[in-house]
Amino acid sequence: MNLLVKPMVCCPQRFVVHLCTHSTKTYHVTSKHQNKIMEKLVGAAGGNQAAGGAGGASSYEALKKLDQQWLQMRSMTTTTQGMMMIATRKNKRRQEEEQVFDAVVCGGTLGVFLATALALKGMKVAIVERGPLRGRVQEWNVSRKELRELVKIGVLTDAELEDVIAVEFNPSRVGFDGGTEVWVKDILNLGVSPEKLIATCKKRFLGAGGVVLEGMGVSKVNVFDDAAVVLLDDGTTLVSRLILDVMGNSSPIVRQIRWGQRPDGVCLVVGTCARGFENNSTSDLIYTRTPVTQVGSSKTQYFWEAFPAGSGPRDRTTYMFTYLDATPNRPSLEQMLEDYWDLMPPYQGIKLEDVEILRVLFGLFPTYRSSPLPAAFDRILQVGDASGIQSPISFGGFAAITRHLSRLSSGLMDALESDLLDKENLALLNPYLPNLSGVWMYQRAMSVQLDINPSPDFINNLLSINFQCMEKLGDPVIRPFLQDVIQFVPQAKLLISIMVNKPLFIPQILQQVGFLPLLDWTRHFIALAAYSVLWLAIAPSLLSWVESLPKEKQYVWRRQLEAWQYGSGFDYNG
């Protein structure tokens, strides 16, 4: 079976911290002094202007705080007694209020795109953002196809799209220690300025009549029969027909829904943006240069990615990340960051004392098999990372949500216009997607299991074989996969190619994955085939019939057709 890796999309939400500096001082970083180094960077930043979503905090203390959350997550020290009830359902009708919004979007950093799309269609929309509604300094890396989704839904013009691109580069490398090296073009090859992008969308949102409430967090949501009432932490009350939760993995509503659940998978990532790279015209989508590594009392496989940064021709962002389960003896972010200082220079072919550290980045991304998250309450829907729509390999953020903006904006308009805002109808907007669910086996194959002791080179060999076969099969197989799209025919071709060319490697794969995960993957793979047939053979004949149905039935069938399309990967258009 084919066990693959998708490049981590470099636009994480909520659990990321970055530290900024505009100092010209060169830092010689060692693991013993990283506390002092990071605090110097914060001090040099002069004021630490925070941005919503990724990059909200900025100190060594923030790293320790995030590590404490990671410790609690893998130790399961939380209890049901300590659960904070943010969202509650009330049976009685609310009192009439003067102003009722069609939608209140909680979490503006990524929520502003959907909010703007709805406002442009005539909906009365408000955005609630705990901090200031502005983008971070660090670029988001996406493909042009993904970015054009914002033009498709009217959020950006063609000219504005070009203006928000901070840097463009080609080609990109995929490579594994001692094995295959593949070069591709036009995949995650744009660095988009979140500052410009969010400022542009915010201006268009306000121009369409939208309301922005900054510096206010969500304290409570009470759902009544005819509306939802949002209480903000400054005492402000908003009444809305629909609440969109775009607050990412750290959403308090998501924490309530998933309370007591241990994540099925976690990605830990550390990195920097630094100045001083002479050869800086290409990127790495995913790269390894070491076998399985002992980190503390646990073993893990380190992966790398790197991109030119838009802040200068010699500026480069490098990330080191790993996939883990959430068991107690897994390494901390601080341990990984110490390894990063040692491993990044030979990876990039530089000396640490020759580069200027501009930003330090680190993040924690938990994912769950029960995703996308179905609506748990009437009038509340999780969107983006909050819903778990991201792949457990690519880990979401900006590029993950753009793929679904067209589907979500049209679906939400249908729901609002037909007043289909109960949890059963809203759940149709976060449907089962077999191509997403099947990726869990890939995540397992790329992480070192505690109860299995594979060869230190197993993961590198596995990925090398997969990409070697994909390269031979050509663009129709490798390009969709590298853009976070799983399709049945390319996957079937790859499976056959591996079985024919590397039959002796199959038993090792089965040992690494395990019988039950393999059985689970088989179920999703069969569903992927079924969804492909339904979309290609059945859906075209249903389109005119669906349009003849009453609005309520149209809503249900449109969501079903979208589930077949997106669940089979046929939303991908090259």
UniProtKB/TrEMBL annotation:
The keyword Membrane is annotated on this UniProt entry: yes
Keyword rRNA-binding: no
Lineage: Eukaryota, Viridiplantae, Streptophyta, Embryophyta, Bryophyta
Record protein name field: Lycopene beta-cyclase
Keywords: Membrane, Transmembrane, Transmembrane helix
Membrane-traversing stretches: 525-546
InterPro entries the UniProt entry points to: FAD/NAD-bd_sf
